[in-house]
Amino acid sequence: MITIPRTIVRRDGDLYTLEDALRRRGFGTVAGADEAGRGACAGPLVVAAAILPPGKRGRVPGLADSKLLTPAVRDEVYTEIVARATAYSIVIIGQDLVDGRGLHVCNLTGMRRALAKLSVAPDYVLTDGFAVDGLPVPGLAVWKGDQVAACIAAASVLAKVTRDRLMDDWHERFPQYGFDAHKGYVTAVHQAALVEHGPCEAHRRSYANVRNAGVSRRAAAPGESVMSDNDGVEAAI
C-alpha cells in the first residue's frame, strides 16, 4: 500500500472529518472498504467498497457503524447509500472459498476486488483495520474505521445488509439452524443446532466447532447455491 505524509485530523471531528482532510490534501475521491462475516462460522464473507460524494449529498442520513444500527435503520441507510454514492461495489466470497483459501486471504482479496470494481477510480483508500497491499493508490488502515470514516461506515452497511439478506435465504432452506436470527455467528442456539443436526452446506467446514459437530452427525441435505450476481454485486463461489 502506498503511503503519504501524515494528515492531521481534529479529535472533535465527525464521521466525515477524515475524508474532508484528505480532500484538502488533494485526494478528491476517497474510497472506503469493509467486510461482514469474519466472525461467522456459516455463510459467506461479504466485502464492500464505497465512495461518497463531497458536500451535502455525501452526508448520508443515519450513517454509522453498521453494528450500531438496528436492522430496520440499516436497511434505510443502505438505500440512501446506494442512491447517493459516487460508486459502490460488493463482493461475495462463498464459504467454500473461505475454507479453501483461509479467512484472512479471502478478506484481503475481497477488498482488492471490491476496490477494483468501483466504477470511479479512487485517489485514496481507507480500510477498516487491515492494511491492503498491492493497491495502485495511497491508503490507510484505520482502527475501528467504520466508526471514524464515513466511506468505511458506508461500506460496512453495504456488506452487512447484503450478508444478512443472504443468511435469510439460507434460513429459508435450513430453518433448523436459526440463520435468520444469528446470521451464522456462533451463539449458544446455533451451536446447539449444530450438535443436533450436524453442519449443512452453509457452514464453514474448516472451523473447529463446525468440524467437531459434524464428526458424529450426517450433514443436512444439500441444495442449490443461494449465491448469484446482482447489480453492483460480484458473487465469488
From TrEMBL:
InterPro entries: RNase_HII, RNase_HII/HIII, RNase_HII/HIII_dom, RNaseH-like_sf, RNaseH_sf. Keywords: Cytoplasm, Endonuclease, Hydrolase, Manganese, Metal-binding, Nuclease. The keyword Hydrolase applies. A divalent metal cation binds at residues 34-35, 128. It is found in: Cytoplasm. Pfam families: RNase_HII (PF01351). One of its GO terms (cellular component) is ribonuclease H2 complex. PROSITE patterns: RNASE_H_2 (PS51975). It comes from the Bacteria. Manganese or magnesium. Binds 1 divalent metal ion per monomer in the absence of substrate. May bind a second metal ion after substrate binding. Its cofactor is Mg(2+); Mn(2+). One of its GO terms (biological process) is mismatch repair. GO terms for molecular function: manganese ion binding; RNA binding; RNA-DNA hybrid ribonuclease activity. It is an enzyme of class 3 (hydrolase). Gene3D superfamilies: Ribonuclease H-like superfamily/Ribonuclease H (3.30.420.10). It catalyses: Endonucleolytic cleavage to 5'-phosphomonoester. Residues 28-219 form the RNase H type-2 domain. Its EC number is 3.1.26.4. Its main location: cytoplasm. Endonuclease that specifically degrades the RNA of RNA-DNA hybrids. Belongs to the RNase HII family. NCBIfam families: PRK00015.1-3, PRK00015.2-2. This is Ribonuclease HII. The gene is rnhB.
